[in-house]
Fold this protein.
Amino acid sequence: MRPDTPAENVDHTAEAARLERTADLYPEDAEALLLRAAAHRELSGDRPSATALYDRLLTSAQELDDPYLVRALKASNLWEYGHEAEARAIIDGIRTASPRDPAPWVIVAESLESHDELEQAHETFTQAVRLLLADGTEPPRATHPLLFGRHRVRRMLGAAHDEWDALADTVHTLPITLDELHDPKRVWSLGSENPAELEAEIIRLRAELGAYREALSRPFPVAVLHWPAGELTELLSAYPTLAEEYPSHGDHLSAIEGALRELASSGTPNLGIVTGTVPSYEAFAASELASPSDATLLPQYATTLAARGRAVAWPPERSAACWCGSGQPYGECHGTE
């Protein structure tokens, strides 16, 4: 499913089945593929099957990249079809484990919030921001939903602004303020017969939808192919004709950054980078009944890796490690102006 496919036109059951088949073919990518399949199962209304996919991942012999994310998604899904006690137990376990990734915290806190457990949701959001945000540093983008969620819950609880709410305001970029978006009285506007009030609420809802879309994961980005130095050397040694595509490793890295910046300036959303390996590329070429020396396969290979959940979103934050693998912060490496 491409990102521009209207949700109402998606056969979620068929899409889930396709992703599960792909996971069987590429077990090394099973975590990303099965998480997407589980999401489609949930959207189709088949929540027990979604739980089965989460359990499949959690009981797999293969180590997961983010087991707490899988547990959080399982808990949220369980609660939606009546397994509240089990969901609460998983949520308590996640809070005790205190993972360093913001995503599980967001999911379990929003699950509590959606079931009117506002005090517990507030405690969970607060525990997460205290754990993951260092004083005096710019909050990473991944932590913004924690700040926004905490702000939203505190508005519903009628709590006064504190320093974390002020920080949420500073990272919020939409024209409508968080206080407006999270105003508990907004629900009354939807029942108003005053056209001006309804129009104002529609504008707020559009802005809020934009915030949610911005916070969503990017399962199928426009991806550019990156070869680490050793892999590129091996690739060109085996297939010398590809040297026309890659004159040098330095040129290759510069071309990636340049291409991504050009795409970004043209308004292309969901940009990412996928990292290739020679064995994987050769296997892809064989599956296409083509020669790896065919340069037209390279963008297809990149798209395939992205569809398997291998893409890393671009650009990284300036303080994060550069995508090129140099070990330097992005802002001091390829992120320099």
Q: What stands out?
A: The chain has a mean pLDDT of 85. The first strand starts at residue 222 and ends at 226. Residues 57 and 209 are 31 Å apart (CA to CA). Residues 195-215 form the longest helix (21 residues).
